[in-house]
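Problem: given the chain below (354 residues), write out its structure.
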Amino acid sequence: MLELLKDIVQCFALLISIFLNTILTYLILTKSNSKMGSYKYIMMYLSLSALCYSVLGMIVRPDLLSYSSCFVVYIKNSTSFFSPTVMIYLMSLICGFYFFFASLISVHFVYRYKALKYGSKWIYFHGKYTFAWFLISPILYINWTLNCIFAFQPNQRSTEFLRPRMERDFGINVDDVTYIIADFYPMHENGQKFPSIGAFISGFNFLLMTTVSLFVIFIFGFKCYYEMTRVVVPGRNYSITQKLLQTQLFRALVFQTLIPLIIMYIPLFILFLFPMLNIDLGFAHYVSISISLYPALDALPSILLIRDYRDSLIKMFKKQENVPMFAPYYVRRGSTTISSARKSHVQLNRVELS
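Solution.
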């Protein structure tokens, strides 16, 4: 029953994500305020990435398992469209998005802080420098994807180790699934467990990149909040439009950070950390569901909190009011001249009264 619920929620959430991120991309391209500058490209970058993640998630639909000293990402062969070899690569690609999103949100906060503090004078988010900032996320993405491909390959020992757990808790034959596994204390032929140096190097790589990303988010988040308190102060060299826009962008960014922090970063951090300590958690099914919700929920703050996007979306779906083909001309205040249309209207009323 839980497997069926997970599949339904995953498919539903990913379909909503594809719909919302497509709309958000269109709004960013066509309805963005000119004062947003290069920031709209960073927003569009995140939206398109969430769209790609959702499409890949629909194809793969992976599940997670935290068991003893192992962290496992797996997919049932009966639900996959490709061979097990191809699915291992696809699962590695989808795992790489974890650091892609974390690093891109960090770039968001750095940009917001610099834009608040220096405005358009800060040159390092223009032209070729913007392209350099965009490279950070793909580099971390490639780093973790290759790590999953080369360091987390399954073998016969890991298969036999997972067999009783998969059959007991999920009713699944481990031979019928394709998986990648981070096994920090693999079982050797003599029946003893020993730390895996390769797995621990990958684990520390995961913890380091996650910690650095979260550190940047929190530090520059507080810096942004401090600058925001100065932006809204009367008398500063900001127009009302700029103050409103900066406030909307900052609020949207805060929610775009809280959503993945709660439903993706913290759960995955725990699921990956506890196997390194050889602690069995086993609640990974719920994390699989929450992660699938992330790209669907991530687009909502920008759509709902940024007024230009919200108003444009309302106008798109709102029925247009019937406008008369010949609108009457109104008398300008203080003018003694009455339009011909107004005169005709008055004369017609007089005829009817007589």
